[in-house]
Structure formats: structure tokens, C-alpha cells
Amino acid sequence: MVGVTAPRPRTYKRTAQGAARWARLGTRGLLYVVLIVTSLLMVVPFLWMLSTSVKPDYQIFEYPPSWLPRQWNWGNYARAWQLAHFSRYTLNTAIYAGFSTLGQLILCSMAGYAFARLPFPGSNVLFVLVLATMMIPFQMLLIPLFVILRYWPLAGGNNIFGVGGTGLIDTLVGLTLPNTISAFGIFLIRQFSLTLPSELADAARIDGCSEATIFRRIMMPLMKPALTTLCIFAFQGAWNDFTWPLVITMSEKTRTLQLGLQTFQNQEFTEWGLLMAGTTITILPLVLIFLVGQRYFVQGIALTGTKG
Amino acid sequence: MGFAQATVGGRSALVVHPPRRKLGPVVRDKRRTGILFVVLPMLLFIIFAIAPMFFACYLSFTSFKFTSPPKWIGLSNFAMLQQDRIFKIAFVNTAIYTIGVVPSGMALSLAVALLLNQRIRGIVVFRAAYYLPVITSTVASAVVWMWMFAPDVGILNRALAIFGLPPQRWLLDTKLALPSVMFMSVWRGLGYSMIIYLAALQGIPEHLYEAAEIDGAGSWHKFWSITLPLLKATTFFIFVTSVIDSFQVFGSVYVMTGGGPGYATTTLVHQIYLNAFKYLRMGYGAAQALVLFVIIFVLSMINWFFLRSDVEYW
What residues in A contact B126, CB-CB < 8 Å? Predict the structure, then answer.
């Protein structure tokens, strides 16, 4: 079930002995009880969030608290959506996550494949360099990236020398561009490319296909599992990103959902019903993707974890 | 067809100037395509990762207020760091956070992985429940937990009341604020390590357990002498990556407490952020970031060297 093709350990055996069987049933019963209780504890915050978001205001602070609203109040969702430019934030987040993912899919698959299957003098050195950048904490790059984007030539009123305007600061391009490439993505695709069969490519070469055509027509389709994993990770990373948008965006027209949510709560008086509705809207897309493609999430993590 | 055209163009160029050592057309095409594929990604890497890294190192030796160009001041930033009381508090907070979150998170995720590694029905549902917090953003989790922790009306205080315990101020209490944030982090990170452990557990070959059973080993004995030793590499990987993550804690603190009350929950990255982007002392912020980098670099190196000596058992 977890996408790892190793045998599962057999931790119990069926025996005919009645007593042993009852003992085992008891153990399994206990196992289920523990699993159900702990997994419920994990989702309680989400259930409480949903519950709060659909309660009428007077019921939110009620004691003792109840899980179900006495009358369903969907107004929080409508208000959250209209207040605080939530639709604009959603669009910005979708653009940021979408183009980051697209960029990483194209650039990482090309570079990762090249490092695995198209060796050229110095390619190993470059690959090690890429791996080495994985050790840089992103927080260290915040200040230089801010400066680089501020002095980006010919953008945001800057002249060719990068002075005069504000550059790519507070633009969606500036937000997205540094996130279109990832060392992890290149590493993932390279490791996967190494496992691809070479027979098909050889046959294509005999037919006179160029390496670029082989990559596009033959290898890309074979890389689908790795590309799916990369797609999910890239999208999730950008959708949930907080630190980089916090630094690089300033106005309503570029802020993302995560920042919107955070400003929501900064106000003097917190409207919890509204805030929980906003949080639900923020979480929902990823939860839906997760429910559909749980297998790929799990595979991706197993892939990165077992062979780091 | 951009690639194909470029390749054709490159080939004709090579016919005019043949290389010293003659290469087959396939090898030549591979080289050219390889370089072509790598050029743009590497260019972006240089602009957005490698150059900024050197730039960050340079900035840490300067006084840089952003409005005027950086001014070289040698080691002054680092001398200042040693005197900085708040940075020291941030360092201690980060260390406490790491010591509190990493071991407990690992123990819990291993326990859950062991439970899920049985032949049980509905594993997909259970796994999803544990994993849900991982796909939830830092901000969303923080906001949800702020509501749980809310003084007077939060559900946690309501739960305490059932047991006759006095309500707590959680995130507003100097002593409880950091543990509250840590609690949220354990909850959020559990599912991730659990999946890695689960994959590792499923990779342990069954014949080892069968052999142990023939030797009369009980399940406790099997756990100690087979499961745990074989999880060593995985445990180490999770340990190092969790420590690295913990040292970079920022979003949850920024949203839930803003580093407060007082300086009770301020962390290394929180200080870097404040110095660089709130007080606009970018040179000083860069110096603090360099300290963080050194810590993480050492941890990553340890990780690499140990993982290389990973033993295969089957």
C-alpha cells in the first residue's frame, strides 16, 4: 500500500488454538483502539476549525462547547472571501504555486536527466555543486535575494544598471522566479533517470533520433512517477510558503494566502469564526489534492527518506 | 522543436572545427544536448543560490542599511553578536525547541509507524489522519492552534476545566509559550517522519524475522535485535534532518507569538528576519544568518558521512 515494493513483515500467524486466537483478537482490538484514538487526536484541531467556521457568532464562545452548530452559518465563508482581498490572495497563490511548479518540472527534469544520461566534461562537478546548494539554509539567501531582485535591470522602473526603480520587489515575477529551480528536484529526477532502461533510447538512436527528441518523446513519459512527485512537492512548497512571500511582497496585489491569513489575525479583535473559515479555504486545495493522490505523497517522501 | 534546431546548428559548427580527439556522433550529440539542458538551470542556480551565498558572506562583514551601499567593517558584526543578549536568548530558545521537539517527535513517529506496520484494515485512513498536519501550511496550523490555545475560551482550557484544572494563558505565558509552540510542531511534523519510518520498516526483509522465530525469539526480542538496529540509518537521517528543520523554526513563532511574550519564543531565524527586514540592519542580519549556516553545514556534513557508510542487509 505504501508504494515500496518490499515484503511486509508478517507479524502474526493464524493458528487453530482457540486461546491464542482470542488473545490475538484482543491485541488487535487494542491496536485498533489505540490507532483510532491517536488519529482522532491528530485531526481534532481540524474538526474544531471546521466546527468553529460554521457556527453562528453567539455559539463560538459558548460553554460547554459543542461540536455541531445549532444553525449552520455559511456566512463566515462568504465574508472571509470578500474581506481582506481573499480572492486576490488566492489568485496570487495559484500563480506563484502554478508557475513555480511548471518551472521546476521543465528545468529540473532537463537538468536532472542531463546529469544522469547525457554526460559532458565537468557535468559531475556541476551536479555536486547543485547538491551542495541543498545545504544552504534558505534564510541565509533572503537578504541577498532581496537585494538582487531590487536591482534587477530593466524591471520595475530600473534602468539597464538596475537603479531608479524598485526592481522585481513586490511583483509576482520576483516572487516566483527564484522558486522555479530546485536542487532537490534535480536530485530527484537524476536518481530516477538512472533507473530508466536504455534499450528504447538505443533503438531510437539507431533510427536517427537526436538526444533532445529521445528525452522529449521517450524519457519524459517514462519519468511520470518522478515528475508527479516533484509536481506535488513543488506545488505544496509554494502554496504553503510563508517566509519568502513575507519578505518579497508588500502590497495587496502580490500578497499570498498565507500572508493574508496572518494579517487577518493581527487585528485587535480576532473574529475566530471568520478566521477559521479563511484557514479552511487556505487548506482546502492541498487537502483535496492529497486525498486524490495520497499514494504519490507517500511515495515521494519514502523516496527522499530512504536514500537521502 | 527548439532543441533539435539548436543541435543541428551546433553539429554543423563542429564539422568546420573538428575536435582533437574524434568522438562518435552519438557521444557528441549527448554532450551537446547535456550542456544545452543544463545551461538555463545552472544560470538560475548561480543567480538565485550560489552568488547570493557569497554575497551573504560578504554582507556579514559590512554595515548595510540598504539605502546606502554596504560598508566594510571587518569582524565588528561578529563582535557585536557576542555582546547581543537577545541573540543569546534566541539561540537558547532554538536549542530548547530542538531538544524538546526532535526526540519526542521521533519516538512518537516510530511508535505510530510500528502500529501501522501491522496487517490492519483502513491503513489509508489512519495514515491520512497522521499526515494531514504535514500538508497544512505553517500559518494555517499556527492559526488553528492559536484558537485551541486561546485564553478563556480556547478548547484546551475548556478541556482542563473538565478535570478541574485552572485555565492557562498558554501563548501569553512566559513559561508556557515556547512549550506550546513546541507541542504544535511535534503534532505537525509527526506524519512526515512516520512515513519515512514506515517505508524503512517495510524494507526489512521478512526472512530475518522468520529466522529469529525459529531461534525462539519473542516479539520484544525481535524488535530490539532486528527492527531497531535495521532502522539505525533511517533514524539517523530523520534525526539530522529534524534538527536542521528545528534550527530554522520561524513561521510558527512569527505567527503565534511574534517572539514574545518578551523574548520568550524568539528564535535564530526570527532574529535574522527582524534585524534584516524590520530594523534594516542587513549586514548584522547576514552575520546572524552565517552563524545559522555554519550550524546547518556541520550537521549536513555529519549526515553525508554517516549515510555513505550505510550497510546493506539483503
Answer: 35, 39
